[in-house]
Amino acid sequence: MSSSSPLTVDLLRFNTCGSVDDGKSTLIGRLLYDSKSLMEDQLEALERSADLTGGGQINLANLTDGLRAEREQGITIDVAYRYFATPRRKFIIADTPGHVQYTRNMVTGASTANLSIVLVDARLGVIEQSRRHTCIASLLRIPHLVVAVNKMDLVGWSEERFHEIRANFEGFLPRLDIKDVKFIPMSALNGDNVVDPSSHTPWYAGPTLLGHLEGVHIGSDWNLDGFRFPVQWVNRPNRPQDTQWHDFRGISGQIAGGIIRVGQTVMILPSGLKTTVQEIWTMDGPLEQAFCPQSITLRLAHDVDVSRGDTVIGLSSMPGVSSELRARVCWMNTRPLQAGRKYFLKHTTQTVQAVVTSIENRLNISDFEAEIGPRELTVNDLGEIRLRTSRPLVFDAYSVNRLTGSFILIEPGSNQTVGAGMLFPPTEAIKPEYTDFAI
Q: Dihedral sign, CA of 284, 290, 295, 298?
């Protein structure tokens, strides 16, 4: 067997957010254009489009604003994903809407991000939507934040204005849980400090946006403390002609936290059965160890009862197991969330029935204070709720593990996703000795 090694290609997921017309789509277009990440047909389509300005400049926002309604209104409505790479790193960009009406789309696009870029129009400064999206980035536990002070050319590249906006942000950032924050002055339209340094900001000694994206450290963003492996399916290759796989029985899925090694003792929840890891497989062959977020197949030393929805864990840093949950939820449906409503709750690889037992509070984005005991949560509201599920969930606090600490609520009948939730810490973690019997 070959030993595992860190992923050879570093991947950074980031999203852009901010208010309407702060330049999010233009910034992404500029990144793609100046980093030479566009195909020839994309360049030709831009040049042929009717969206050339009077000065002959290509409308870079059209690289992400693909919907006709978006181009007609000049706003982003849906989340647009774009991919590009430099010699140092690969990137997945989520261009999220700035309009308050589409806050739920911003939550969707930012949910898997390592880094969030909040754009601020230098003329307008910090407005409510700037604070809202920064707050959401904090609630989603996005570890890295860039405040891109855009359209600096329209305020004469004023160093004083840049520091005024920075001071405004730093006035409320201590109330949020974001530790890595970078402020960059730029002009997305003209490309200043996006890919190349700008001669207009001799007073700014920091990196360009692309330079920061290439260099930001994300290796410690994944939770590597407690092993979590939600089972996606049981792997029984149907290859009778191949004796090597005749008796193969593995469990497949994506590691949601921690590191696993051959010979390590693991526990299967909710049954509590213990066994050891006999082999670790990927499509490229066997490994001695694997880590989050790799997709693997585990072959266990014993044929224990395990199926989709179960969770394999290590015996350190134990999770909680409960059907009584407390969570913060972003409500995405026009039909309000009210206590007593029943939904399907999807958590990792399982879906269970759930009922909302109470609505504890609603977050006021303007002052970050909790409004206690609201009757309901309406579309785009953020609030704390309590739920009861038909089957106990194996989970961690969202602050500890974003993968095992998150869920979505699905409306029965329509099958629409109506809410995205972030779980609070369990009242009590299970004990390592919890088991029906040890093998």
A: positive
Closest CA to 129 of 139, 116, 119, 138: 119
Determine the Cα–Cα distance for residues 420 and 426; give it in Å rounded to an integer. 18
d(CA 383, CA 397): 16
Q: Quote the mean pLDDT of the chain.
A: 83
Using an 8 Å Cβ cutoff, are 292 and 223 in contact?
A: yes
pTM of the entire predicted model: 0.81
Torsion angle, alpha carbons of 198, 200, 205, 209, to 10: -40
Q: What is the pLDDT of residue 2?
A: 39
Q: Where are the alpha helices (DSSP H) in 116-184?
A: 128-139, 159-172
Q: Select from 24, 12, 14 the least CA-distant residue to 186.
A: 24
Average pLDDT over residues 327-346: 94
**pLDDT the model gives residue 32:** 83
CA 252, CA 239: separation in Å to the nearest integer?
17
Q: Are 323 and 427 in contact (CB under 8 A)?
A: no
pLDDT in tens, 351-385: 999 999 999 999 887 677 889 999 999 988 889 99
Domains of the chain: 11-215 (3.40.50.300), 228-313 (2.40.30.10), 320-423 (2.40.30.10)
In one letter, which amino acid is 241?
Answer: Q
Q: CB–CB of 196/211 below 8 Å? A: no
Contact 331, 383 (CB under 8 A): yes
CA distance 239 to 357: 49
CA distances from 215 to 92, 119, 135 (A): 15, 20, 24
Residue 426 CA neighbour count, 13 Å, CB half: 22
- What whole-number distance in Å separates Cα of residue 382 and Cα of residue 332? 10
Closest CA to 330 of 384, 400, 373, 402: 384
